[in-house]
Write a structure and sequence with these properties.
single chain, 323 residues, alpha+beta, four-stranded antiparallel β-sheet, two-stranded parallel ribbon, 6 strands
């Protein structure tokens, strides 16, 4: 008789004891009448189709640190500056949809600003069509994160060189800029085989944050929720896209920026005529503020002349009947 066969009875007895213990414990929760949580939920066709659509979307691939693609002799020698790999916006104009339409390729890992934040930026900072300021802010943040990640790499390298004291000049400045991250993460990230890996973990987190700036899509003058999912043929290939077209909802909820209305009125009368013809039933104010004031003064003069004309004809006792 083998050793395993001698312990068969012991093993069976342990299984029975543990099974009985679990049955007794389950009786406090209604066993066997309580079937427990359902193993499969009923999912509607709409939710299932939506989840399947999102799973089928491609994933946009970018790299951090950014890929080195020198374009000049200076960049070949000293290296190119890091650049944000922005998702391009393809702008188009049609008679039906207007002049400020664009579409972007749809990916599963792109993200947008919340509607309330996008509306706040457009209304309070007057950032509507020209988003160059936001692009500069994103570029500065990206370059700053890349530069700081290089500082973290240098600090990690110095920690392995025992003949360099990181707390002497000039390394002390580098230690002061980076070591605070180690103090914060020291009690959270455990060491691996006695090696401190907080710097590597923080470096990975920096890479995730910096790379996410590549996938941030700015949708001004539209709100992110105005994007319509559809398919278009791009380079002889059917692709999923998000289309932003027709009238931005913020131009209906709030007054159109005055500088944009001046541009239409003085430099692009075709856009002004289109907006006035297509959206005349929405009550949009399309004239610039200066023209509106001139129109108000003109209407006031016309009303003043009509009242005096009635006074001269004897139809009014006083020129201003409300006095």
């Amino acid at each position: 008789m083998s050793l395993d066969e001698k312990f068969v009875s012991v093993r069976t007895g342990i299984y029975q004891i543990v099974g009985k213990l679990f049955e007794n414990l389950a009786q406090f929760f209604g066993y066997p009448d309580n079937p427990g949580m359902p193993t499969l939920y009923d999912v509607s066709d709409g939710i299932y189709g939506r989840s399947q659509f999102l799973n089928d979307l491609p994933k946009r691939v970018t790299y951090f640190p950014p890929a080195q693609r020198p374009e000049t002799w200076f960049e070949m020698i000293f290296g190119p500056a890091p650049r944000v790999d922005v998702l391009p916006r393809y702008i188009y104009e049609t008679k039906e949809e207007g002049f400020y339409n664009f579409y972007i390729e749809n990916y599963k890992n792109i993200f947008f600003l919340p509607d309330w934040l996008s509306e706040f930026i457009q209304i309070h900072f007057n950032i509507c069509l020209d988003i160059s300021l936001l692009e500069i802010i994103r570029e500065v943040l990206f370059i700053g994160l890349v530069f700081y990640s290089q500082m973290v790499l240098l600090r990690i390298a110095i920690s392995w060189l025992i003949w360099i004291n990181p707390y002497t000049f000039p390394w002390s400045y580098l230690a002061a800029a980076v070591d605070w991250t180690e103090d914060v993460l020291q009690g959270i990230v455990p060491s691996v085989l006695g090696v401190n890996v907080t710097g590597s973990v923080f470096l990975g987190a920096l890479g995730v944050v910096a790379d996410s700036l590549n996938h941030l899509v700015l949708t001004m003058p539209f709100l992110p929720s105005e994007g319509e999912e559809t398919k278009l043929v791009i380079n002889n290939e059917m692709k999923d896209v998000l289309v932003f077209h027709y009238l931005p909802v913020l131009w209906y909820r709030h007054p159109i920026p005055n500088d944009l209305r001046e541009f239409w009125y003085y430099q692009r009368p075709d856009i002004f005529a289109y907006m006035e013809t297509v959206y005349k039933g929405l009550g949009l104010e399309l004239f610039p503020d200066k023209i509106q004031k001139m129109n108000e003064l003109t209407q006031a003069r016309i009303l003043h002349n009509e009242i005096h004309q009635l006074f001269r004809e004897g139809l009014l006792i006083r020129p201003w009947p409300w006095e």
